[in-house]
Amino acid sequence: MDYILIADDNKDITDILTVYVKKEGYEPVVAKDGVEAERMFEEYNPVALLLDVMMPFKDGYEVCRDIRQKSSVPIILITARGEDFDKIMGLDIGADDYIVKPFSPSEVMARLRAVLRRLNRDSGSQKSGNIVTINNMVVNLEEYSFSINGQRVPLTKKEIETMWTLATNPNKVFTRDNLLDSLWGYDYYGDSRTVDSHIKRLRAKLDTQEHPDWTIKTIWGVGYKFEINEDKF
Questions:
Q1: What are the respective helix, strand and coil percentages of the chain, to the nearest 5?
Q2: pLDDT by residue (tens digit) across 167-191?
């Protein structure tokens, strides 16, 4: 049985999402606060989480951050707070998508199907050869790990996928929309500023290790590319 964990302290919301999750062919399990959500995650090992941000005891950001330390399970944050800062923070801590209340349950299910399709696509491509090495950098999609100079850099799942996308296409320019579609999916109702914030956080982590032979370069007015110093190769 595949479980979907619904975490929200509003019973009206959990009741309607429970109905729709069942229609999708999954078994819903419901948590009423953040602490219970983490306990139920361990108990049921769900295939995805629908996670409210404003919950008692532990908010959705804390729960998302804790779960991301041990799992890449898809997480969709649901909240009444629709400011760009809140959305960007949610995505930066590892959420796969972000929905603002009030919402259509059908839209939530569409987002859920989208993140699960991407999970199935990624799982299907996990095979020998999903490792790229460029100079002092290694991106490993088999283990979802990233290192520079042999030192592991703690990137989120989305940041590793970003490095894989860019590094396997060196010197190719990706527009912000290209990256938004490639990394968050065509069903993601996002904003190109999400990409800018994502790249900014990623660069800060990369810069903890020296990498003079390659960089993520901004192409002003267009997007980004993984640039290699050709003199070194």
A1: 45, 20, 35
A2: 888 888 888 888 887 777 645 555 6
Q: What angle is formed at CA 149 by the lines to CA 218 and CA 204, rounded to 5 degrees?
A: 35
The DSSP bridge partners found for residue 7 are 31, 51
* Peptide bond connecting 102 to the previous residue in cis, omega within 30 degrees of 0: yes
Of 53, 55, 43, 63, residue with least CA distance to 3 = 43
pTM of the model: 0.55
Q: Residue 232: pLDDT band by 50, 70, 90 thresholds? A: very low
Nearest to 96 by CA among 38, 156, 44: 156
Task: Tell me the C-alpha distance between 136 and 148, whole Å.
Answer: 5
Give bridge partners of residue 174 from the DSSP assignment: 224
Strand partners, 78: 52, 99
Coil, strand, or helix at residue 217? strand
